[in-house]
Design a protein that fits this description.
The chain is an alpha+beta fold and about 200 residues long. It has one domain: Umud Fragment, subunit A, CATH 2.10.109. It is about 20% helix and about 30% strand. It has helices at about 10-35, 80-85, 155; strands at about 35-40, 55-60, 70-75, 90-100, 105, 110-115, 115-120, 130-135, 140-145, 160, 165-175, 180, 190. β5 and β6 form a beta hairpin. It starts with 8 loop residues before the first helix and ends in a 7-residue tail after the last strand.
Length: about 200
């Protein structure tokens, strides 16, 4: 029995170029149209997301339905931030607080949506600022970071056009100790205690 000659590295590459090209095209299609990895560069989403976390952002679902309250989204900066020097290629990550037609207000450390106080168990601390009631226009959303007092978000620059949304942050894959699905948070109006 004879041993087959070992192919040269060049011959191996030449024989596998079509396979490598198909793999590259598939990887690029997935990256640009289905999902992409993202790195968290700031503390604006503490305690939900920490600086250095790495996420998978899916890009398909918002083509079939709009974002929902509680979704954590990744988006390109709106026009006001671009005027301030942010590049359109940069990405932000925040939580959707209100949808078109809803009102948002921040008063005495409480966020209100449509006049109802929100019970926000995921925030780092209550906001130390006030925001008069504003109505979200059609085609836009109101977003806030979970680290309310250290977040450049809609309370600073206004509404986010839905066309700026890149995708929905679904899964943290790094660090391994915090690995898991992010999901959406269901907002529950705060309970009012009435003393009788």
């Amino acid at each position: 029995m004879q041993n087959s000659p070992i192919p040269s590295p060049w011959q191996f590459i030449k024989e596998n170029i079509p396979l490598l090209m198909v793999a590259l095209v598939l990887a690029l299609l997935l990256r640009f149209f289905v999902a992409e990895p993202r790195y968290i560069p700031s503390d604006s989403m503490l305690p939900t997301l920490e600086q250095g976390d790495r996420l998978v952002v899916e890009k398909v679902s918002y083509h079939f339905h709009p974002p929902q309250v509680g979704d954590i989204i990744v988006f390109h900066p709106p026009e006001l931030l671009q005027v301030q020097g942010y590049d359109l290629g940069q990405a932000f990550i925040k939580r959707v607080i209100a949808l078109p037609g809803q009102t948002v207000e921040v008063n005495n450390g409480i966020v209100y949506r449509d006049g109802q106080p929100l019970q926000e168990e995921y925030i780092l601390e209550p906001p130390q600022y006030n925001l008069p009631a504003v109505r979200v226009p059609d085609g836009q959303v109101f977003v806030m970071g979970d680290n309310r007092n250290n977040s450049n978000d809609s309370h600073v620059w206004g509404f986010l056009p839905q066309q700026n949304i890149i995708g929905h942050a679904l899964f943290r894959f790094f660090p391994a100790s915090r690995w898991g699905q992010l999901g959406s948070f269901t907002f529950v109006p705060a309970r009012t205690i009435i003393n009788t």
